[in-house]
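Handout for the seminar on molecular recognition.
Each group receives one record of this type.
Step one: identify the two inputs.
Step two: read the structure output and locate the region that could contact NAP.
Step three: write two sentences on what you found, then compare them with the reference statements printed after the record.
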Amino acid sequence: MKIAITGANSSVGLNLLKHIVSATDIDVIAGVRSDRAMKSLPSSPQIDPRIITYQDSTQLAAALEGAGCIVHLAGILIEDKNTSYASANVDATEAVVEAAQKLGAKHLIFISVVGASKDSSNAYFRSKGLAEEFVKNSGLAASIIRTPILLGPNTAGASSMIGAAKQSKTKILGGGKYSMRPLDIDDLNQAILNCCNSDSREAKLYELVGPEPISYRDLIQKTAAMMNNSVEIGSVPVAIAKLVAAISSRIKGGGITPTVIDVITMDEVVNKNADGELNITLTPLQNTLEKILEHKKNK
Ligand SMILES: NC(=O)c1ccc[n+]([C@@H]2O[C@H](COP(=O)([O-])OP(=O)(O)OC[C@H]3O[C@@H](n4cnc5c(N)ncnc54)[C@H](OP(=O)(O)O)[C@@H]3O)[C@@H](O)[C@H]2O)c1
């Protein structure tokens, strides 16, 4: 089987490539946007790295030619001067859908987020919701997987968590009282590979979250304890953080905005976890944290 991955240099992409090379005979077109990103990809006879552009779906289709399944990972939470939700989340997904249609791809997988909705008042959730619409209405066999915060050795979520857990004192948004359902990145990538192998002919929506709810505060304290540390957690009031973010993001042309703060502090809740449907055995949170800390120790 040959698959294509967009945003192959993302944290999910790099972890997916590792799974593919270590445990499968799948060939991969690994799509990235720059030479710099290409250098971050592992080297393997199974991986064919290619520079792709999302500006022209015909060129994109030519670059992804030969792939039966397309895994669309490119996407952002934090905007900057060079990239916006409109370009990275909405337009890029529209281009990938058009390219998949041109190619006659057998399956398209799109990684979305818990909370995505085209009608959301939050610009990030709205952009992911609009992107989902392109996939849903594409006529292609597709899997849309909404995920919560992802935890794995190189995810942004794990870096912030460890950054806080190693302090003796830290202040976090709202005291970290919001509830999360952290998902092990290995579980997400197993789900992606299972979808690539699926013979479903429709577009399906899944919400895949981790096995246990935990507040961010407790997650930091649990991680700190596993690092033999004790951390005192204080609170940055959310309203003040949003005010500061509104000013600084306007000056910098991106970064942490009130929109991002609303995403971070939202309770991650789903009606039904798709682990059974996606044939995944969820990794217990304790094991996920052990893997992350082990990786950090060996770095
Ligand atoms: N990490 C999480 O906790 C989490 C949670 C929910 C959903 N997700 C979704 O999962 C996917 C992978 O997440 P991740 O955290 O692994 O991503 P990541 O490491 O932040 O990487 C982002 C990727 O998007 C690409 N990108 C940025 N701007 C772009 C644009 N304008 N057009 C096309 N591509 C662009 C980047 O390419 P360059 O390097 O060239 O900029 C990079 O490949 C994303 O769609 C994300 O929304 C992640």
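Reference statements: The radius of gyration is 19 Å. Residues 7, 9-12, 33-34, 37, 54, 73-76, 83, 87-88, 92, 111, 113, 147, 149-150, 155-157 surround NAP (CB under 6 Å).
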